[in-house]
TrEMBL record:
This is H(+)-exporting diphosphatase. It is an enzyme of class 7 (translocase). Keywords: Ion transport, Magnesium, Membrane, Translocase, Transmembrane, Transmembrane helix, Transport. Its main location: membrane. GO terms for molecular function: diphosphate hydrolysis-driven proton transmembrane transporter activity; inorganic diphosphate phosphatase activity. The chain crosses the membrane at residues 6-28, 78-97, 109-131, 152-179, 295-318, 330-351, 371-395, 416-443, 449-468, 512-530, 550-571, 627-660. The keyword Repeat does not apply. GO terms for cellular component: endomembrane system; membrane. It is a multi-pass membrane protein.
């Protein structure tokens, strides 16, 4: 018996949401009460006033929660104004580009609003869950053993992962069913899929603001806290005497959690929309369920991820420090392997035994069976896994590259910089070869539809990827709370061990995100070409895009420049905000020197630092976002579709290389610092407080905006430019049949 696509997709969405709720309820059962027992030296805990410690934990937790809440409220208020203004632009330009077809303009606008709203809900939900869980992870770390504290952080990630996937799948499919009432005939489903592209644009637009704004917030606080605290005054990370420490912990939630959630939601929405546009001919000839195969892949992935999650929490629970990283890595590998039979069964069940697909280039068709789409999805899934493992090799201090980087700190910060930048460049080689192989293989097998399916394959275990991504910031916050509450040092050691594994798997997650973004961007470009062909009745792009057209090649070069301009703007934004933070922290130390006493009687003004990060991020996130949104829009209007083709190609090629190198350099600098900190004073690296450690901290400080602001946001640059061009494809063609206002092509 084969269930309908609607039953499978809605069933998976409900399953994901219910599972997320169950995980949240398990976390909520843990009371916010300091524990009296623990391993190691328990004398301090026994003599400490438990009620006072609990009050301090609640005070810190509340401060982090209120800081994150106030920032997201301010950020999403700005986003709301953007959604309203841009919705009007979409309605007018898309309607005009389709000869004043207000139905298509209005439905595209509605898709945009729904995508943006879902992205906001996803980010906000992630922040809420992370903040709710971090203090409970700290409390469980006070107990004996590793299982309880690991499971809390892991389940916090699962709430975000499964809720986002369930919500995203449900909203997108419900929107498609609603639009089907407007376009009931299969021959008109091409218009349905084109209207759905607004969903991806909405998700990616909010992701841009979330990633850039959240990244500037968190790194301004992090860099400011590190420079004044660790480098100048030699106080530990997350020390309660540092005025920027609350802002730093708030940043982990608004940048690493809310930003990442919106980013990966955008990738899912865009990959699915691209596959639906390119494969719309499947629906016309073989029915609704066959056309919805890309969504069925995501639905199957939810079930696979749910089953594999039991490996970490029940079947192979974490009982010692060495098992933490293994448990997280097993999640990625097991879900990828289990997707092989799961997707095969889905392909056989929902795709015709033999079917034809119109090619993106030319007038030919491809004769396919369910095996070919299955292979494309699997190539994407395993390509993502390989890229993730390569990323781990270059960013984990368990391997040679990061240890070599740590040793370079012996001769100061300058050599650390040189080695770190070189490491990032070198780490690009294998992922790019893997991406090129996946593109070639999937395109050869299933044309551009195969590339879109490979992108969905990258994201097929999205629930697990998000679980692991959110796990890291929760553990990081738990360690900060332990330090600020002045708990037994053993608690901080446990949370640091949890966080160290999270850093490594977060780097793997960034590798997944970058690889999927590259394929999503290419798939969106293919959908753009398909839509222009449809709008022009095959008079434009019939034989593909000619890169030797003067206007195309000229904008290819301009497109390659965009990621560098974007990286420069976001890096400088972090620098400007960090300078403000440094001055504020130093001002407080100068005006109140007793803050640096071993046991100060006064508390720093944490709110002043939170205000600096909030204002700076809201101020600085607008220019880079505006550049990414306006560049393809103005290029298409004034220079035409040939210029847009070059722009998108150049942006994709440059973004993927720069994103990988920046993310991996930053991750390597971070873990090189942690490797130095793990050593004792007798070790050749000197451990904490040594000159070698100070050089490593400088590298980590430079790497912060590399790996948490500019690098990850470049994913959105290539996706957002491509999906925006896809949404406005008919509009671009309407300007002098695709030649633009200036008619240079």
């Amino acid at each position: 018996m084969t269930f309908s696509a609607s039953a499978v997709i809605f069933g998976a969405a409900i399953l994901g949401l219910v599972w997320a709720l169950l995980q949240f309820m398990i976390i909520a059962r843990i009371p916010v009460v300091s524990q009296q027992i623990g391993e190691g030296s328990c004398l301090k805990m026994k003599t400490q006033n438990i009620a006072d410690t609990t009050n301090r934990l609640v005070e810190i937790y509340t401060a982090i929660y209120e800081g994150a809440e106030s920032f997201l409220r301010a950020e999403y208020t700005v986003c709301l104004y953007f959604i309203i203004a841009f919705s009007v632009i979409i309605l007018l330009l898309v309607s005009w580009g389709t000869d004043w077809d207000y139905a298509r303009g209005g439905l595209t606008m509605l898709s945009f609003i729904l995508g943006a709203g879902t992205s906001i809900v996803s980010g906000y939900l992630g922040m809420k869950v992370a903040v709710f869980s971090n203090v409970r992870t700290t409390i469980c770390a006070q107990k004996n053993g590793w299982t309880a504290c690991f499971n809390v952080a892991f389940r916090a990630g699962a709430v975000m992962g499964f809720a986002l996937c369930g919500l995203g799948i449900m909203m997108l499919y419900a929107t498609a069913l609603f639009y089907r009432a407007q376009y009931p005939e299969p021959k008109d489903w091409v218009y349905l899929t084109e209207c759905l592209t607004g969903y991806g644009l909405g998700g990616s637009s909010i992701a841009m603001f979330g990633r850039v704004g959240g990244g500037i917030y968190t790194k301004a606080a992090d860099v400011g806290a590190d420079l004044v605290g660790k480098v100048i005054h030699g106080i530990p990370e997350d020390d309660p005497r540092n005025p920027a420490t609350i802002a730093d912990n708030v940043g982990d939630n608004v940048g690493d959690v809310a930003g990442m959630g919106s980013d990966l939601f955008g990738s899912f929405a865009e990959a699915t929309c691209a596959a639906l546009v390119i494969g719309s001919s499947i629906g016309e000839n073989y029915g609704w369920d066959a056309m919805m195969f890309p969504l069925i892949v995501s639905a199957v992935g939810v079930g696979v991820c749910l089953v594999c999650s039991f490996l970490a929490t029940h079947i192979l629970p974490v009982k010692k420090e060495a098992s933490i990283e293994i448990a997280l890595k097993v999640q990625l590998i097991s879900t990828t392997v289990l997707m092989i039979p799961a997707i095969y069964m889905a392909a056989v069940a929902y795709l015709p035994a033999n079917f034809q697909l119109q090619t993106t280039v030319g007038v030919g068709v491809k004769d396919l069976t369910p095996i070919e789409p299955w292979l494309c999805v699997i190539m994407g899934a395993f390509g993502g896994l390989i890229i993730g493992l390569v990323t781990e090799y270059y960013t984990s201090h368990s391997y040679f590259p990061v240890r070599e980087l740590a040793n370079s700190c012996k001769t100061g910060a300058a050599t650390n910089m040189i080695y770190g930048i070189a490491l990032g460049y070198k780490s690009v080689i294998i992922p790019v070869i893997i991406l090129a192989s996946v593109v070639y293989g999937s395109f050869t097998i299933c044309d551009m539809y195969g590339v879109a399916l490979a992108a969905i394959g990258f994201l097929s275990n999205l629930a697990t990827g998000l679980t692991i991504d959110v796990y890291g910031p929760v553990c990081d916050n738990a360690g900060g709370i332990a330090e600020m509450a002045e708990l037994d040092p053993y608690v901080r050691e446990k949370t640091d061990a949890l966080d160290a594994a999270g850093n490594t798997t977060a780097a793997i997650g960034k590798g997944f995100a970058i690889g999927s973004a590259a394929l999503v961007s290419l798939a969106l470009f293919g959908a753009f070409v398909t839509r222009i062909r449809h709008a022009s009745n095959d008079t434009v792009f019939l034989n593909g895009v000619n890169m030797l057209e003067p206007i195309t090649f000229a904008f290819l070069i301009i497109g390659g420049m965009i990621p560098f301009a974007f990286a420069a703007m976001t890096m400088k934004s972090v620098g400007v905000a960090a300078m403000e933070m440094v001055f504020e922290v130093q001002r407080q130390f100068d005006e109140n020197p007793h803050l640096l006493d071993a046991n100060p009687t006064e508390r720093p003004d944490y709110d002043a630092c939170i205000a600096i990060s909030t204002k700076a991020s809201l101020r600085e996130m607008v220019p880079p976002g505006a550049m990414v949104i306006l560049t393809p829009l103005l290029t298409g209007i004034f220079f035409g579709v040939f210029a847009v083709s070059g722009l998108l190609t150049g942006s994709l090629i440059a973004s993927v290389q720069l994103a990988i190198s920046m993310s991996n350099s930053g991750g390597a600098w971070d873990n090189a610092k942690k490797y130095v900190e793990k050593q004792g004073p007798e070790h050749e690296l000197g451990g904490k407080g040594s000159e070698i450690h100070k050089a490593a901290v400088v590298g980590d400080t430079v790497g912060d905006p590399f790996k948490d602001t500019s690098g990850p946001a470049l994913n959105i640059v290539m996706k957002l430019m491509a999906v925006l061009s896809l949404v406005f494809a008919d509009t671009f063609y309407h300007f002098n049949e695709g030649r633009g206002v200036f008619q240079l092509s």
